[in-house]
Each structure stands twice: as structure tokens, then as C-alpha cells.
Amino acid sequence: MKKNNENNNLNLYAVEDEAEKENQKSTKKLGKYSIQLASVSNANLIDKEWQRLKKIYIELSKENYNYKKVNLKNGKIFYRILVGEFNSKDAAKDFCKSILKKNNCIIRYYE
Q: Using alpha carbons only, how large is the chain's radius of gyration in Å?
């Protein structure tokens, strides 16, 4: 049986934005850390993907999500689905391990 992803626009792999990486290195740490759970290429898929993720990670039903629109250098637009507003990267890692049961998560810093 072939698994249906509902839409080919869904991209669960992080698409790195080099400009964002450089900006993080050069700015003072005044913002918060979030965990990127997914990335979708269509804004209409954001809520649908959040609902799907809550079924996989039951503990997420107690959390609120946020998203960030990202314009990549190649001209494509993605919407990063984020959870948490952590004061430190370590706090985000702890959430990742305890709630998501993962050793590696994509942790983003936003002001």
C-alpha cells in the first residue's frame, strides 16, 4: 500500500536559509528558541499539518503552535511550523527529548 502524503507540497525536511543562519550569528540573543516540527510550501496546509502532528505526538495537544513564513534564496516560500518559546537552546532540547522522544530536533532562534 502506498502511503499518501495528502499533498506533494508538504516538505517535512528542513530547508535551511543561509541568510537566517548568518543573521543569528551576528545578532544579540534577545528572542526565543522554538522547535521546527515541519515545513510546508502552502499556507493552507499549516493547520492540517499541525492536526496530523498532534495525532503522532499526543503531548502537542497541550501546546500552541506558531509558524514563520520564510523566503528562501531560490525564491521559494515555506512556512515553518514551530512549537515552544524557550529561553535557552537546552530547554528546547529537553522538550524535544521528553515530549517528542527525539534526540535531534531542528531548533530555531527568532527575535
A: 14
Residue pLDDT, tens place only, 49-59 = 999 999 999 99
- Cα torsion through 31, 58, 105, 81, rounded to 10: -50
Report how far residue 110's alpha carbon sits from residue 61's, in angstroms, rounded to the nearest whole number: 23
- DSSP assigned state of 60: G
Is 34 part of a structural domain of the chain?
yes
Cell of 57: 505526538
The total of structural domains in the chain comes to 1
Give 83-107 pLDDT, tens digit per residue: 999 999 999 999 999 988 888 899 9
The answer to the question of residue 39 being in a domain is yes
User: Is 78:25 a contact under the CB 8 Å cutoff?
Assistant: no
Q: What is the pTM of this model?
A: 0.71
